[in-house]
Write a structure and sequence with these properties.
Number of domains: 1
Distance between the termini: 53 Å
Shape: globular
Strand content: under 5%
Mean pLDDT: 89
Order of helices and strands: HHHHHHHHH
Helix content: over 70%
Number of strands: 0
Structural class: mainly alpha
Low-confidence stretches: none
Number of helices: 9
Length: 259
Amino acid sequence: MTVETKLSVLLNIILTVVLILILIPSVKMIVKDRKRFLMLFFSMGCMCYLLSAFYWIAYEIIRPGTRMPFAADEIADCSMILLFSASLETLLRDKKKNAPGELIFTFVYISANIFLWIMWSGEWVQDIVFGLPYYYFLWMIIRGIRSSKALNKVELIACIVGPFAIIGFQIGNLYAAGNARNIFDLMAYTSIYFFMAWFGIKSIKTGNIYLRYGFFFWTLIAMYSCPEYLYLVATASNILATFVVYLAVKKETLKDDIR
């Protein structure tokens, strides 16, 4: 077992501990009042994520260094994304107001990522099926950010241009050769981690639940886009994002009690 694999197992163990620590108080809140649908969907999503982490730890120990096929963890991850999306939908007040631009952005961006995943892995069925829930998840995040006015115009423009610039760098890397390929790699990874750091800081400072889910979403994109030790950094960031999302969900749930 390589050092990288050992670190991956360690991070998944930490994720498991964090999820259990999140679920214990969350379940208690749900038992107290079963109408807390935000917390209910979020907790169910965390349970799915916990199952995925358990599976990944077992696989890494039993078959270290081998690529995991389409398996139970993918199903659990898809369930997690759908349940997190459902938790966000419980918060949206303007459910009938749909902006065509949001739908277009979501469709094009997620489709571009699915294309990249297929190019990197060669697994058409897995990447398409696994990518479908992300349309719903990103759309809910975008609608929430717009409705809560969490970002100003400059930040919104950056959040539109930046991700597509990264997609451009990644596609450029697929078809470039020699030093050009390394340059595209550097630009893509630098931009991915810049946006991840910005999302993390912004979401923690504002406490906005949609931005925190956006931070979580971006850590997933980073995990799927980065190799080796960069992947481990994204995984560690994902653990942090999971916890800060929980704090926002808890705050929103308690706020509902006051009403």
